[in-house]
Amino acid sequence: MKKKSSLTNLKSCVKGNVLPTVLTPVFIIFEVALEVFIPLLMAAIVDGGLKGKTDYPLAGFIPAAVKSEPKTLIITLGVGMIIAALCSLAFGMLASRTAAIASMRFAANLRKKLFLKVTDFSFKNTDKYSTPSLVTRLTTDVTSLQNTYQQLIRMFVRAPAMIIFAAVMAFNINAELSMIFVFAIPVLGAAIFFMIKFGFPRFKVMLKKYDGLNASVQENVIAAREVKSYVREDYEKEKFDKSVEELKQAQLSAEKIFTLSIPVQLAVMYICTIFLLLFGGKTSIFDGGIGEGELVSLLTYSTQIVNSLSMVSFMFVTISLSKASLVRINEVLNEQPDIVGSDSDELKVETGEIEFKNVNFSYSGDVNNLTLQDINLHFLSGETVGIIAGTGDGKSTLVQLIPRFYDATEGEVLVGGRNVKEYSLYELRESVSMVLQKNLLFSGTIEENLRWGNPSATDEEIKRACELACASDFVEAFPNGYETDLGQGGVNVSGGQKQRLCIARALLKKPKILILDDSTSAVDTATDKKIRKALREFMPGTTKVVIAQRIASVMDCDKIVVMDKGRISAVGTHDELMERSEIYREVFNSQQGGKN
């Protein structure tokens, strides 16, 4: 699929944002026009009101009655300056408001678009980007583009408009003296080009250092208990300090180039001022070519033009930074999910029957580096299947092929007699519940977490699911019961309690297939036995796939799969495997002390 350009990806983010985006430049142009008009009024006050000259700016637009009285002229033009200044201020405030609204809506749309894109990623897509990098792209990079968007519709309109309007006014007053701007503008333009060319690559490096810093912070927050238990605070502090230092150096490297902008700006401004005072003063005082008020106006226009050029240089600094952010955001938006379900939701999963046909799988997609090899299995609907294997032998990988968290590299995975690729992802995953060893609870109450399994579940159904998962006793022991706030990640419940709540959440879903991936490792044997008994009685038509380290958790299953180094070693009941599977027998004897 052809990748979209950066601008194409961002175009939809302006949706619903056209009016404030268009109004901002309009308000800016009115603000600038009035701001440029003020020096002309000032020149008319000095030359016409104070000096008594007859040839001064705006003289042809002033009534004769006002011209004849210097005091009246000064007061009239002074009032005009106040009105122009207030109107310019009003248009500036309106522009600020509409620009803020437009940029915030743009950022909100972009964040939503990025978030929805990430939620469509398969695990393989997610693995391509680190979590801290995705967080940085959704926060820092989007904020950078938000600021740039606001400046594009505001400063990038204001600066050119000011340069054009001020230059026209200056040339109208004195074309010869205004020629200084013809030389000043290319000098500042060349300086801006130099800064952009050498600054952009450094900003890309700086953003990568942001990713490293976020990774350090995230790891320490998530793994706080591990850090403390191994007394590694000093090591982590050193690692964090190193990340901070690397980010600082990257920022200095990127931004020191742009420190030239102000010295160059001031140098050009002072040269223009000296030129105008030197030659303009001679023309004004000795030759009578222009009035003192007009000279002051030229100096004001000089300052406005140079400041606007400086604003342009600052804009290009921002664009350099945002360009690096735009590239990173565009990478995510152009990433194509490698797992896409059927477009139709009409095909439903009718049964929990599961079949693996000649399945090979590699995380890298390399057929010479397979995690699973020659997998052929068939589980009937309603069966309870146990999977036993050593660490790293592929048991978790195997079950993740069922809801299509990953796709088989070769072969087919069938659910309900059909290839999983024929279902929409929603219908397939709605029929499968997974409870993992590393359980995750979300911020909110116990009830809110349980309703992830079934948002419309009744209070009785929630309580029943907790009873089956052996969770009702400790939940009802809390002062607030099911309204107890779990905090982020369920920090105020134990590991075993988390597992039981996650099992209850899965039961509320009433799936066709229930996968328990070592999900009772943190509960005692007696509780484990009660949960298994409840699952058999409560969900007789559901296919239950149980991955466990303990033989006791799977020995009463209808069939048990023994895996070894990504292959199927043996399949059978407990008694059958005790007779013909050496791996199973060794595990059993090591756990049961040789007692059968």
Characteristic key phrases:
10 strands; 596 residues
Structure write-up:
This protein is of the alpha/beta class and 596 residues long. It has 21 helices and ten strands. The chain has a six-stranded mixed β-sheet. Strands 2-1-4-5 form a four-stranded antiparallel β-sheet, with no helix packed on it. Helix 2 runs antiparallel to helix 4 (70-119), helix 6 packs antiparallel against helix 8 (180-222) and helix 8 packs antiparallel against helix 11 (261-287).
**Quick check: average pLDDT?**
82
Give the strand order of the largest sheet, numbering strands 1, 2, ... along the chain.
Answer: 6-7-8-3-9-10
Q: Which regions are unreliable across 5 or more consecutive residues at pLDDT < 50?
A: none
Indicate the percent of residues in helices. 55-70%
Structural class: alpha/beta
User: Helix count?
Assistant: 21
Summarize the SSE layout with pairings.
Blueprint: H1 6-11, H2 18-50, H3 64-67, H4 70-119, H5 123-128, H6 131-153, H7 155-173, H8 180-222, H9 224-229, H10 233-255, H11 261-287, H12 292-334, E1 354-361, E2 372-379, E3 384-388, H13 395-400, E4 410-415, E5 418-419, H14 425-430, E6 432-435, H15 446-450, H16 459-468, H17 472-477, H18 495-508, E7 513-517, H19 525-538, E8 543-547, E9 559-564, E10 567-572, H20 574-580, H21 582-592
Parallel strand pairs: 3-8, 3-9, 6-7, 7-8
Antiparallel strand pairs: 1-2, 1-4, 4-5, 9-10
Helix pairs in contact: 2-4, 2-7, 2-12, 4-6, 6-8, 6-12, 7-12, 8-10, 8-11, 8-12, 11-12, 16-18, 20-21
